[in-house]
Amino acid sequence: MTNTKRNVGNNDRYSLPKSRSHNRKSARLQNYDYSQSGYYFVTICTQNRVNYFGEIDRDRMKISHVGQIATDCWWNIPEHFDNAALDEFVVMPNHIHGILVIKQRHAMMSSKQNVVNNDRYSLRRPRNMQLLSKIISQYKSSVTRILRKQSIAHPFRWQNSFYDHVIRNDESLDDIRTYIKNNPLNWALDEENPANEITLPR
C-alpha cells in the first residue's frame, strides 16, 4: 500500500473537544470496523475525574503508584494482542491519552506510513468489529485487577466508557502526537482539570 495523503475537510482534522470528556460521547462510527488496520487516538478517564494517577508539578507529571501501574499496563498491551502496537502516550492526573495502532497480522505498519484508515465498512459480523474496544476493556481490567490484588479496598475506578478518534492521515497523526506530548504543559487549562470545573449558580 502506498503512502498517500487524502484531501480531507476540517472534520477529519483532530481538534480539542469542546465539552468535558466525562460528558463526551464516543466518536465511534456506526458499522465501522474497529478491527481494521489503522491508528486510533484513545482517551480514558478515571471515574469522577479523581486524580489517582499523580499530579502536575512545574509543568511535569509526577506519577503516583497507581499512575505507574496504568502506564506499565498500557505498554504491555502488545504482549496480549499481537496485532496491536503503540505510539505516543501520556498519563495525566485523572486520564490517559494514547495512540493505539491496529495492524494486519502479516505486516507491521511503520510510524509514518500507511496511516490512512480504510473507509469502507466491513461486512464482517459486529462481534468481529470491536477489537479496539476489546483491547481497551482488557487494559482497564488489568489496571483494576492489579490494584485490587494489592489492596482489596482500593477506591480506584475507571469511567465506564472511553473516547476514540480514528486518525485519518499523517497530518492529523502529527497534530495528535504534539497534543499528547504537550498535555502536561497545558494542565492549567485542561478541561479534565477539576480546578476548571464550572460551578453553575443556584
Net shape: globular
Chain-averaged pLDDT = 79
- Outline the low-pLDDT stretches: 1-25, 106-114, 116-127
Task: Quote the beta fraction.
Answer: 15-25%
Q: How far is it from the N-terminal to the C-terminal residue, by CA?
A: 58 Å
The total count of helices amounts to 4
Radius of gyration, taken over Cα atoms and rounded to an integer in Å: 17 Å
Descriptive account of the structure:
By secondary structure, this protein is an alpha+beta fold. Helices cover 23% and strands 18% of the residues. The protein has helices at residues 65-75, 77-80, 131-150, 170-181; strands at residues 38-45, 54-57, 60-63, 84-91, 95-102, 163-167. The strands form 2 sheets. It has a 4-stranded antiparallel beta sheet, sandwiched between helices. It is globular.
Topology:
Layout: E1 38-45, E2 54-57, E3 60-63, H1 65-75, H2 77-80, E4 84-91, E5 95-102, H3 131-150, E6 163-167, H4 170-181
Antiparallel strand pairs: 1-5, 1-6, 2-3, 4-5
Would you summarize the structure shown here?
This protein has 202 residues and is an alpha+beta fold. The protein contains four helices and six strands.
Task: List descriptors.
18% strand, 6 strands, 4 helices, four-stranded antiparallel beta sheet, disordered N terminus, alpha+beta, 202 residues, single chain
